[in-house]
Write a structure and sequence with these properties.
Largest sheet: 5 strands, mixed, barrel
CATH class of the largest domain: Mainly Beta
CATH superfamily of the largest domain: Nucleic acid-binding proteins
Order of helices and strands: HHHEEEEEEEEEEEEHHHEEEH
Strand order of the largest sheet: 1-2-3-5-4
Number of strands: 15
Bound molecules: zinc ion
Number of helices: 7
Structural class: alpha+beta
Number of domains: 3
Strand content: 25-35%
Length: 299
Amino acid sequence: MVRDIAEQLKARFSEMGVEVPLEEIEKKLDVLINEFRVPIEEAKRSVVSQYVRAPKSADLVKVKDIQSEGRWVSLKAKVVQLWPSESESIAQAGLIGDETGTIKFTKWAKSDLPLVEENRCYMFKNVVTDEWQGRYNVKLSRSTEIIPLEEDIEVGSLVEEVMGAIVDIQSGSGLIKRCELCNRALVKGSCGEHGKVEGIYDLRIKGVIDDGKIVQDILLNREIVEMLIGITLDEAKEMAAEALDQSVVLDAFKEKLIGRYFSIKGPRVGRYVLVEDIKSAPKISDQEVKKLITETEAL
Ligand SMILES: [Zn+2]
């Protein structure tokens, strides 16, 4: 088992340009795991930290150039968004971006780095790239240096394109009411900020699209919903009035969308892609069907 882990680590080191004899890694792991009873993950981390150090100054790259994991890079970027921390081990997390797009960052609590502020620009020296569910992100660690910049960086909005099946329509979709004062969606007739209000009707879809590799949250506004479903806001209000139930609208949306294939396009904002363009997409193209038939015939 120690040998398997050693082989994994050796492969990882080679990818990072560090060649270490397998026996050497195995011996270190063996001492930690079998002699000192260190948990496996901890032992791996310890061995990795002995060999893999951040370079003095990693290459300065653009966000769009981050296409592999486990690479040390430096980025000049603006903090676009900070997210509430999900765990005690994370000091800060959010989105940073440059002219070429945005990328998620995570700053470990152990890194002891200064806090970054939204809308400010920094040089992030020596961050390590990582991948999660098909998307790249960067991790800020003890080896990272954060230098505030005076210049402003224009962040390019990264237009995302996803082709896949809509697998869920979430609550808060359909015929909804918004607060007339702040535009927030009401929950049970109440605004989080202004309490009980009259509200104005709106149509919205919060959905999830799955392209077979990743699942992506999507948000569709009234214009897009009316176009896609073929029901206007007024018609939706009539449907709800007739049924004495607002949820008939949501049911109609679900019926039309869930399990169907679409190609969507729009800018990413936080965890959502704001859909500006949506087309129904065949599951497989005619060309692919022809290709499959030819291949089957050849068997
Ligand atoms: Zn309000």
